[in-house]
Amino acid sequence: MGTITIFDKSELSLADTLECGQVFRYRAYGKGYEVFSLDKRAYAYDDGDCIKIESADTEYFGHYFDLYRDYRAVRASLSEFSELGTAMECGKGIRLLRQDPFEMMISFIVSANNNIPRIKKIIEAICDMAGKNMGEYRAFPTRDELLGMTEADFAACGAGYRAPYLAAAVRTASEEFIRELAPLPTEEVRKRLLSVSGIGPKVADCILLFGLARWDTFPVDTWMIKALKESDSDTGKKIRARYLEKYGRFAGLAQQYIFHWKRNTEGKTDD
DNA sequence: AACCAGGCTCTCC
DNA sequence: GGAGAGCATGGT
Fold first, then answer.
1. CA angle, A47 as apex, A44 and A49 as ends, to 5°?
2. Contact positions of strand B to protein Cβ (< 7 A)
3. Which of A94, A107, A113, A208 shows the smallest number of beta carbons within 10 Å?
4. At what angle do helices A251-265 and A71-78 cross, to 10 degrees?
């Protein structure tokens, strides 16, 4: 068991980072949170004058929490957009987690037209049904393990009408399919993701942002429409294009600030 | 009891 | 390409 210590607490807010809808496998634990990714686990907490992350795989979680990126510089770049000020201040310590693309694919197919508490529940049920028993928790199932689940199995996990999408997506998402995405330009990756059952524009953007660290994208969900819609004829597609153009290579992080701020100032009836 | 949730697919135009 | 219906489930 190793420990990562973050001495400057302004570098990472655990609450804002974990509770802004980019990750579904975490829970309040002790002084902080238990966080799960693939078959790994970390315990992250505020230790007074620093943040600590304990794990059997600190290398993995150092990368996972995106600790090697200079957010101070990124935030300085975004500070030119005065309209972002309030949202940025509200979600100051948000970092974009670098999660596994396959886990993100499955998770965000589940997320469609769904709410965060129930998304968490369904994903946990899928882990319980097919994931490796790690002793004190279950791993996220591998693709091979998910190939063993039928539509009825996904439905039994509470996936509802997404069950057939999940079963089909697992079949499409071979290791080659995932591996081939890495070197491709974002728009090409997005095109390929859109060809998968259950993945539309919004889900594709979330996979790009949270699973492939592509920040040049801008997921638009119901919350973003509430926050950014300018007229009756303003569609999700138009909003996406507008803000992608505006925030460029930092659009994804800007989107997280806005999403987090909108949910924290009106509603968020969960947890 | 309608409405909503990190929307998508399918059909019809 | 864009508009509309239908979709499981659980919470207000």
1. 130
2. 4-9
3. A113
4. 80
Instruction: Find the Å distance, CA of residue A94 to C1' of nucleotide B1.
Output: 39
A225 touches strand B (CB under 7 A): no
- Weakly modelled stretches of chain A, pLDDT under 50: none
Q: Is the CB of A197 under 7 A from strand B?
A: yes
Report d(CA A179, CA A8) in Å as an integer. 35
Q: What pLDDT, on the 0 to 100 scale, is given for residue A59?
A: 98
Which pLDDT does position A26 carry in this prediction?
A: 98
pLDDT tens digits, residue range A112-152? 999 999 999 999 999 999 999 999 999 999 999 999 999 99
Alpha-carbon distance of A237 to A256, in angstroms, equals: 17
| Cβ of A231 near strand C (distance < 7 A) | no
Per-residue pLDDT tens over the stretch A50-76: 999 999 999 999 999 999 999 999 999
Query: CA-to-CA distance for A135 and A39, rounded, in angstroms?
Result: 11
- Strand B within 7 A of A206 CB: yes
Distance A188 CA to B1 C1' (A): 45
The nucleotide whose C1' lies nearest the CA of A161 is C8
CA A18 / C1′ C4 distance in Å: 36
Length of chain A: 271
Our measurement of CA A269 to C1' B1, in angstroms, reads 20
